[in-house]
Amino acid sequence: MKKILLVLSALLFFFGCATVRKTDMEVKDLIKSAMDNNQTEIVIVTYSGVIKNNPSDMDAYKIRGMLYWRQGEYEKAIPDLEKVLTADPKDEMVRETLGDAYCEYGFTFRWKGEYDRAIELLDKSIEINPKYYRPWFYRGRTYWLKGDKVKGLADYSKSIELDPGFHWAYNNRGATYSENHEYDKALNDFNKALEIDPDGECAILAYRNRGDVYTAKKEYTKALADYTRCLELDPKNTFAYLFRANVCLATKNYTKALTDYTKCVELDPKLLSAYLGRGSVYTAMKDNEKAIAEYSKCLEIDPNNINAYYLRANIYLGDPYRDNGDYNKAIEDYSKCIELDPKYANTYYQRGIAYEKMKFYSNAISDYNILLELNPKDSMGYFRRAFLLSARGDTVGAINDFNKMQELGDESEYLYTNRGNAYMLKGDYELALEDFSKSVKKGAHYQPALGKGIIYYLQGKFDLAVKQLDLSLKRDKNAPAYLYKILICKETKNEADIPGIVAEAEKFLKREMKKEKDDSINYSNLAQIYCEAGVKIDEALELAQKALGMSDGANNSYVLGLCLYKKGNFGKAIENMEKIREIKNADTWYYYRLGCCYKESGNIEKAKEVWQEGLKINPVYRFILGELEKIK
Fold first, then answer.
1. Whole-angstrom Cα distance, residue 28 to residue 280?
2. Neighbour count for residue 625 (Cβ, 10 Å)
3. More confident: 25 or 524
4. Contact, 125 vs 158, CB < 8 A?
């Protein structure tokens, strides 16, 4: 019955519309009646008939256009409403409706990712009704999605100007300020949004966004409060759990972080950030097995997730200052990262360290080269490359890299200490002493004093050398200082002091062995001290063999060679010491010792060859110059 009455009403309207235009109220009543009685389609069909019979009937276009608009069929509504507005530019109801139709129609293209088309339609909406706040807001959002934050901010501000109570505009403008790191402005906007809407849909996002700002400002207590309030309003807000977990991770509340990351996984089993976060928690807790499992789970969901490969590789790499990593797996994961993103600069740095650990030094240098091509301002990239170049005899290249670090603003004690070492290896002792002095001013660690002590020893200034070596030991116990003190005692015929020095070194290194059972350097250092002191040679040999079994580095091979040399086994000694030459080590001391082995074995020409090679690195090395003088 209602259907019949409505149709009759529409027909009565049809027969009367040719002579009398309907008021806005009458049009609204008809549309409301059609919508309330689910007769929209019938009325649209009726007025389509009206238009067919009388193409100049503007009321028919108006009613049909507004019905299309109410149904969200904006593409159909716009032509009808355009026709009416052209005929009567003063029809404000049509102007507002048409403006909104363009606005909503434009925003549908925003969802499709067709941003230019969306902006074109939103421009039209603003042109028709410039005082309508919503198209400004939608266009601001669209500009933001296109990456034009300046225009986005301008449109959000215009939307607020037109409707100061529109909370979403404050929220979105605040989010844009936050991305620009304008945190005070962002907080003002989020506060205003929450003042207008303290517990609605917008409030959920505003609390979360404000929590993000507090997190960026490291105001973690406030951030936690906002994420918690967000979850009170929306207990299934996955990202609020995620971001709260991130704050808990940052504040080392690992138990709470795990709880929130796990809740994320429950709400969204494919949320990769939750697995990555849980992996980071386990990494911080030093539970590497569980961390690897989390990153591996992430890769099951997304086999191309570069972050999971990178973080898992970091665990495989282990401590860069110890030989405790699974370097093959680390390199495999870092290589996958590079395959996925060849411009992921830091991956080359990390893989370079893994190659160093595997003794693939050329590969490591190659990775550092690529890193520095991608990021010429990576100070640590220059540092790692300089360290390798210096160790392999290219002290000039190393010094150039250290100088580049200084150009980039690095004035750290580590720069001066390591550049000082490079100058020392090169034989530029005065420049080395200058750098070591600068390092001392930056920090009171043992290395610059040790470096000075070694230089004074190499120059034959034994009193100054002992003073610096003692200062180095006072700052931090270290094996090289004990070793050089023993060498000075031998050269100055002061052998009576050697047993006391050996005892101190032995006590220190055995304590280190207990603390770091897997660190080969402590075993090889004690073996070298025994050999140079001429004591416990058999025990030294056992220590050297153990060190080499733990890590087959060139230094451990040298120490084993030294032990064999002391036992008179020159052939085996030479075989082990030659590994230093294979990697082109820059420490001329090794070449001096290797030459002595050849000399003792009767191969003077080979000894001269090795010593000449050492002089190419350090032309003023007094021990080699002395030996060559003896055999003229």
1. 59
2. 15
3. 524
4. no
What gap in Å lies between CA 527 and CA 106, rounded to an integer? 78
Cα three-residue angle 4-10-16, rounded to 5 degrees: 135
Spatial separation of the C-alpha atoms in residues 368 and 380, rounded to whole Å: 10
- Which amino acid is present at 314? N
CB 21 within 8 A of CB 60: no
Q: CB-based contacts of 227: which residues, under 8 Å, 6+ apart? A: 207, 208, 211, 240, 241, 243, 244, 247
How far is 502 from 199, CA to CA, in rounded Å? Answer: 74
What integer pLDDT is reported at residue 39 of this predicted model?
78
Q: Rounded CA gap, 309 and 256, in Å?
A: 25
- Over residues 375-430, the pLDDT tens digits come to 999 999 999 999 899 888 889 999 999 999 999 999 999 999 999 999 999 999 99
Is residue 115 within 8 Å of residue 109, measured between CB atoms? yes
In order of 48, 56, 82, the CA distances from 52 in angstroms are 6, 9, 18
**Residue 321: pLDDT band with limits 50, 70, 90:** low
Tokens of 404: 């580049």
For the chain, helix, strand, coil in percent to 5 are 80, 0, 20
Q: How far apart are CA 605 and CA 603, in angstroms?
A: 6
If pLDDT is split at 50, 70 and 90, which confidence band does 323 have? Answer: low
How much is the average pLDDT of 189-196?
Answer: 97
d(CA 262, CA 618): 60
Give the integer Cα–Cα distance in Å for 264 and 278. Answer: 10
Neighbours of 168 (CB within 10 A): 22
